[in-house]
Design a protein that fits this description.
Elements lengths: L9 H21 L3 H8 L3 H10 L7 H20 L14 H4 L12 H12 L21 H12 L11 H17 L13 E5 L2 H20 L11 E6 L6 H6 L4 E5 L2 E3 L4 E3 L3 H12 L3 E8 L11 H10 L3 E5 L13 H4 L7 E5 H4 L7 E5 L2 H5 L36 H35 L4 E4 L6 E6 L6 H15 L9 E5 L2 E7 L7 H31 L1
Parallel strand pairs: 2-3, 2-6, 6-7, 7-8
Antiparallel strand pairs: 1-9, 4-5, 8-9, 10-11, 11-13, 12-13
Length: about 550
């Protein structure tokens, strides 16, 4: 190729002549494509620098980003260290935050000094502190400095991730970390991109569940030749246990007409809930006999209320034998599969089509972090794909099987969440992830031992994770009275959340308390403080109750 350059001043001519000669010499010596070199070298260095300066607009001010970004990092570090000086949950009434905000938005921009000051004084104190060492109420939403650092880069160069071509690094890194995670969670090989499967990082567990319901519904309709106008579409049946409430919204959003809730049963001798796999067989066989079409089952690996594990192997075998697609929700407990002592979990997954675990809960990655695997990626994406418009076609793929994540979900854009997971895995390694899991379980076992030291408390179920379920229990109380006492117990605890914040649950009519070791900063001393506070609270509740009973008896 021959290039002609015309300049109207001597200085520019000299600069370009120097660069062109240098480029030609480079091409001659190294074989680098001359056209590529021309793209880089076609402007004088001084003009490149000036152009770079021109790009620093008010909407991405690099100086402000560096100055106030560093200030924000310092603020986060300072406040993180002070979290235990705040109550876990703010003692405020609904609407109190909005009352402190201006009624109308500012017409002119404000200074970062004022914005950051309001963040510290208005926002932080009125948050429920999910990274607080004494947040014991919910399954965790963990974050680590590795994930925070990754998000700085991610947000700085925001990529919508629609197709591979939109951001090859985002697509391929997500492919890779999904295979990494499948390996250290001991998933069957078929869930990896290196085999027939693969996965993606979804926003939430319920979003992932809805995708499985959609794909299963479409595949079952194709199998039976059912169109959207076919009345047989009203014969589809889904199956869940009565502890799988989080399955209900995705099922409802996909207009599934029939849902069978298989009940857990309370075993008073074991103080635990039990689920019979044969109840699934009987329900499915009856539905088939009635002319319905069973198509999907949602199985729990760690329910929200009590962390129950459904009999996964038995239920999935029954369902696969009857042509159902099997989805396992392991949002919380699935992370424990990184540890060898949880082998009994991953050994049950042979008949599973979809597997979900939320790394935001126990894997330090932050939101969004729902890892969602499929056994057959080609079958799965066939239920989403439409013909691409020209502007979404990827170029130069050379026969490589690229992954366009728009074809794995309902939306187009796909957040680069894999960067956070990559940082977390690389920073802590598999051994670090195992250490975090085992520390949490060790602390929950310690709290279990505190409860067992006081015969007034009954532990609900088996402690297998960071969750301990319990209640005040007396054989002299009927169920309604027992529930009332435990509700008063919780209310008394929550009057002062500086000692800890917990929540309650109700299953099979039994009201009980949920205690979860939530944060990797939690220490035994935090549990001791909460335990002392709990004993004081239950003593006060029983004292008031006894005094009330005496008054009633006298009258």
């Amino acid at each position: 190729s021959v290039y002609f350059f015309f300049f109207n001043d001597t200085a520019t001519t000299e600069i370009y002549t120097e660069q062109i000669v240098g480029s030609v010499r480079c091409v001659q010596e190294t074989g680098i494509n001359a056209e590529y070199m021309g793209i880089i070298n076609h402007k004088p260095r001084t003009q490149i620098q000036n152009l770079s300066m021109d790009r620093h607009t008010k909407f991405y001010d690099l100086q402000e980003l560096e100055t106030y970004g560093n200030q924000m990092i310092k603020l986060v570090c300072d406040l993180y260290q002070k979290q235990d000086q705040y109550p876990v949950h703010p003692n405020i009434k609904p609407g109190s935050v909005r009352q402190q905000l201006p009624e109308h938005p500012p017409q002119q921009g404000e200074s970062f000094e004022d914005i950051i000051k309001d963040t510290e004084k208005l926002i932080f104190p009125n948050m429920t502190h999910w990274q607080h060492p004494k947040l014991f109420g919910y399954y965790p939403a963990t974050i680590s400095h590795a994930a925070v650092i990754a998000d700085i880069f991610n947000n700085g160069f925001l990529s919508p991730g629609i197709t591979w071509y939109c951001c090859p690094a985002a697509a391929e890194l997500e492919n890779h970390v999904m295979d990494w995670a499948a390996e250290f969670l001991h998933l069957p090989e078929c869930f990896k991109f290196s085999s027939t499967g693969g996965g993606q990082i979804c926003t939430t567990t319920c979003d992932a569940i809805m995708l499985t319901v959609h794909a299963s519904k479409q595949l079952k309709m194709k199998e039976h030749g059912i169109t959207n106008a076919d009345p047989r579409i009203t014969k589809l049946v889904a199956y869940i246990s009565d502890m799988g409430y989080h399955f209900e919204k995705p099922i409802r959003m996909k207009d599934i007409p029939h849902v069978r809730k298989i009940p857990y049963k309370w075993n008073p001798e074991k103080a635990d809930f039990e689920l019979d796999p044969e109840d699934y067989r009987r329900a499915i066989e009856q539905d088939i006999k009635d002319g319905l079409i069973p198509f999907w089952v949602g199985i729990n690996m760690g329910t929200t209320s009590t962390c129950q594990v459904d009999p996964i192997a038995e239920i999935s075998a029954i369902c696969k034998a009857n042509g159902l697609f099997v989805c396992v929700d392991a949002a919380y407990l699935g992370a424990a599969q990184v540890c060898e002592e949880y082998e009994y979990l991953w050994k049950q997954l042979d008949n599973v089509d979809y597997y979900i675990v939320n790394f935001a809960k126990w894997m330090l990655s932050g939101l969004n972090g729902t890892m969602f695997w499929v056994k057959n990626r080609h079958e799965y994406i066939s239920t989403f794909m439409a013909e691409d418009p020209e502007y979404l076609r990827s170029l130069n793929v050379d026969g490589y099987e690229i992954v366009n994540y728009k074809d794995w979900q309902s939306g187009q854009g796909h957040r680069f969440a894999a960067l956070r997971v990559w940082y977390v895995i690389r920073k802590f390694g598999v051994e670090g992830l195992q250490e975090n899991i085992r520390n949490v379980v060790s602390l929950s076992k310690y709290f279990e031992s505190l409860l067992r030291s006081d015969k007034r408390f009954q532990i609900i179920g088996t402690v297998k994770s960071g969750l301990v379920c319990y209640r005040y229990y007396s054989e002299d109380l009927d169920l309604a009275t027992s529930n009332a006492v435990n509700k008063q117990f919780l209310e008394k605890i929550e009057e002062d959340t500086s000692h800890g914040h917990i929540v309650s649950s109700v299953t099979q009519g039994i009201y009980f308390l949920r205690f979860v070791v939530n944060c990797h900063t939690t220490l035994k001393a935090d549990l001791d403080d909460f335990w002392a506070h709990s004993l004081k609270c239950i003593d006060e509740v029983l004292k008031i109750r006894n005094a009330t009973s005496e008054v009633v008896e006298k009258n």
